[in-house]
Amino acid sequence: MTNEKQSRALIFDIQAFSVHDGPGCRTNVFFSGCPLRCKWCANPENFETKPHLMFSDKVCKWKNGCRACVKRCKKNGVVFDEISGPKINWKICSECTSFECTKYCAAHSLKVCGKYYSVDELMNVLIRDSSNWGLDGGVTFSGGEPLLQYDFLLQVLEKCKEKMIHTAVETSANIPSEKFWNLMQYINFAFVDVKNMDDEKHKLGTGVSNKQTLSNISMLKEKKWKGRLVLRYPVIANFNDSIENAQKIIKFMKQNNLFEINILKFHRLGQSKWEQLGQKYAYEIGGDVSLDYMNKLQELYLKNDIICYVADNTSF
């Protein structure tokens, strides 16, 4: 064991019976915290590294006379307008640690994002779910960026190895190379996101450089990592949908002996989450790519001897 004292991790969701995030039937563990700030992110609640509040006005019962959250909040984080309903003071609520309002919201319009788990608590969930996985399934660590919570994940991966649990990860690989390599020793299957091959465009869309990501991918080849690696990216109009970007990815893949990529069709399923966090969604308009164009990109990869899966039409 790396550390006799167990770490804790902030996790915002655990989903059983997942069939699109690695081989077979899997349990997905979504870690909080991410170094990227992708403007199209479908899980913006994973950005934070501490528990925080979300509010859905669509399920709030204020029109029925409910004012439970106002009565319980001692910091005036929630106020009511009798015409437009509840208003959240996000500055006040971002500093809250007790979240009293959520404990009395019968409609669950107010909820806390993120719950701390110990290593043993998470392993108990995985062992419980393991009877549903079948021969090919296992656990997929996602997020957010699961690799950010390094100490905890390493301890969990060591226990997974002891119990012969198949492990997969969805990652931006945007962590220091030494830590990345240490964790990857315990990973059987990996999705690594390559948002854009142009560094400046990558920064504009995600807030960070792509250099660490690309360097870590190349390191897997250099060190002869034995797992299965599938590159992945959402195809977003006017950001990374160009043929030029795909050609750069193809060149990079050939340099690193990679032959599988999964391109994802842009969607707006995360828009309501941005709104529940009191933030504006940057892709209310734009970003859409047709299925015909997705197929065109797929043909380009296939012509270059790279297996290209579109959306969830995959072999895993």
Written overview of the protein:
It contains 11 helices and 13 strands. It is of the alpha/beta class. The protein folds into 2 domains: 8-49 and 116-310, TIM Barrel; 54-113, Alpha-Beta Plaits (2-Layer Sandwich), CATH 3.30.70. The strands form 3 sheets. The chain has a 9-stranded mixed sheet with strand order 7-1-2-8-9-10-11-12-13. It has a two-stranded antiparallel sheet with strand order 3-6. A two-stranded antiparallel ribbon has the order 4-5. The chain starts with 7 loop residues before the first strand and ends in a 6-residue tail after the last strand. The model has no long low-confidence stretch (mean pLDDT 95).
Give a concise summary.
The chain has eleven helices and 13 strands. It has 316 residues and is an alpha/beta fold. Strand 11 (228-235), helix 9 (243-255) and strand 12 form a beta-alpha-beta unit.
Q: What topology emerges from the helices and strands here?
A:
Blueprint: E1 8-18, E2 26-31, E3 52-55, H1 68-72, E4 78-81, E5 85-88, H2 90-93, H3 100-103, E6 110-113, E7 115-118, H4 119-129, E8 138-143, H5 150-162, E9 167-171, H6 177-184, E10 189-193, H7 199-206, H8 211-222, E11 228-235, H9 243-255, E12 260-265, H10 271-276, H11 291-303, E13 307-310
Parallel strand pairs: 2-8, 8-9, 9-10, 10-11, 11-12, 12-13
Antiparallel strand pairs: 1-2, 1-7, 3-6, 4-5
